[in-house]
Amino acid sequence: MTAVSVSDNPEQSRYEVRLDGELGGFAEYTSEGGVVTFTHTEVAIEGKGLGSALVRHALEDVRAKGLAVVPRCPFVRSYLEKHPELAEVTGK
Question: pTM of this prediction?
């Protein structure tokens, strides 16, 4: 069984997704004034749902912290379009 975990790595300004402990991708961000701007997402292992798990966790974490999101990254922007239940993090 494969284990997927997502965590914030504030030292590198990115959320990371791991598959069985191995780095499978990341979503880079900048954070300033209560706004988290996602700038770039990379997923090394495709077809396992890692990108979706990564972005969902990152958006839910930002929402739980009461911060707003600016989705500059096309992957994050596309995810938000497909999941309107998370769109309130953008303030729209």
Answer: 0.92
1 pLDDT higher than 70: no
Give the separation between CA 88 and CA 80, rounded to whole angstroms: 10
Judged on CB neighbours under 10 Å (0-12, 13-18, 19+), 6 is buried
Cα separation of 49 and 91, whole Å? 26
Structure tokens at 53: 């798990």
Neighbours of 10 (CB within 10 A): 10
pLDDT tens-digit map of 2-38: 789 999 999 999 999 999 889 999 999 999 999 999 9
H helices of the chain, where? Answer: 50-64, 74-82
